[in-house]
Design a protein that fits this description.
By secondary structure, the protein is an alpha+beta fold. It contains five helices and seven strands, in the order ββαβββαααββα. It has a five-stranded antiparallel beta sheet with strand order 2-1-5-4-3, sandwiched between helices. A hairpin with a 2-residue loop joins strand 6 and strand 7.
Length: 136
């Protein structure tokens, strides 16, 4: 399902990246950011963007873009829902998901992502189950 996940700030800088299948080149972030700059506001960016080798599916939550790269056809709404769930889990764990909290909690976030996704497929997405595995 998801090959890689990038979390970007509103300047287009990569705050965090996680790969499950194969490492996705950071050039997809440059491609995505070029599309963002073409829009008048961040909310005008299409949620699904077709890049030369990937589908880029994203959400904007607070001041962070959650960008998933997908190589095969997948239901975009399922990826969007998963990205929202990830953002909600981060908010639950850290009170507010900001660039600073992501940078301060790398280890916890990587543990959460390892539990939430298994080889790029959703695995554990319930916060009650996650809090029993990884202490908030």
């Amino acid at each position: 399902m998801i090959q890689s996940l990038f979390i970007l700030n509103i300047r287009g800088d990569i705050v965090l990246e996680k790969h499950w299948r194969a490492a996705t080149s950071r050039s997809v972030v440059d491609f995505f950011w070029g599309k963002v700059k073409e829009c008048k506001s961040f909310r005008d960016v299409h949620p699904v963007i077709t890049a030369p080798k990937h589908y880029l599916i994203h959400i904007l939550d607070g001041n962070l873009f959650y960008l998933a790269s997908v190589t095969a056809e997948v239901a975009p709404m399922s990826v969007i829902e998963l990205l929202h769930k990830i953002a909600d889990i981060f908010t639950e764990y850290f009170a507010k998901a900001t660039e600073a909290t992501v940078r301060q909690n790398f280890a916890t976030i990587y543990q959460l992502l390892d539990e939430i996704l298994d080889y790029g497929y959703p695995y554990i997405t319930e916060s009650n189950a996650l809090t029993s595995l990884i202490a908030p």
